[in-house]
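Deliverable D4.2, example record:
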Amino acid sequence: MSGHTGDAGPVEVEPMPGYLDLITRASTVMLGAWRDCNHCGLELSKRTLLDNANITLTEITLFFFCAFLWTQVRRGLTQCLFQPLAQWCRLLPKDAAKMPESAWKLVFYTMSWSYSTYLLFFTSYSFFHDPPSIFYNWKSGMSVPTDIAIAYLIQGSFYGHSIYATVYMDAWRKDSAVMVVHHIITLALISFSYAFRFHNGGILVLFLHDINDIQLEFTKLNIYLKSRGEGYHLLNDVLSNMGSVSFSITWFWFRLYWFPLKVLYATCVSSLQSVPNFPFYFFFSTLLLALLLMNIYWFLVRRTHRCLNSNPKSIYGQCLFLS
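Output generated by the structure prediction step:
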């Protein structure tokens, strides 16, 4: 299988590395880059930011318009579809209050992940099969392809909407304040990756993370539905268990296997091969490494804590971040 670097001609696609390759080569390359960086510091960071950030007023306007539009679409779906559906299913009051939120997120994440899947597997982009290609022909201020710009507009405006929605539309939970912080950080990462033209890698990151949100909301909905009408519904119980099992499998496969060995390796190692003076090397490498550590934490520590403190009679699916 071969890839293409544009002006450089076709090249052999590098096989996906293993965990040991990631640790040894990434650490070696990063330490070498740090030793060779004679002028790293705050002044260089500020100059790099000013010289390379590219977001237009039109793009900012579209962001706010679409964030407002998501809010109105969610409000309309909640009032016209999700709340009547919860009443028709005769959900328990506490479940009926949370069901519209999960239904909305399931609809959005299914749509956004499907679009990312289309970009990666049904177009000419080879980012998934050839991760180093995300840096081929990279230039500061390069134009963003329209189809990728649309994906960024969808995701960025959704998280802008989510900051407002968590405070004013969602059922308030113990971790809602943390979720607001999460949405702000996510929006900042999306904005920086777009402004600094790390958009190719961003599409791959979104694809590898959104699938878990689909399974999470699907599992939540079936937990709510299994007790509808003051009865017990086996099908929804089985579906919630299937959803939680697939959630665990894909969390490991997408976030703890593909994400570090494709995205993190490409950013830490392959980026400097294509762009020797990549101006945001340490910035994006550090952020992606932090994201990997958070994924490991959520998978091991938080999941175990929830399971150990849950009712022994509760289903397995309730051990998976289900508030």
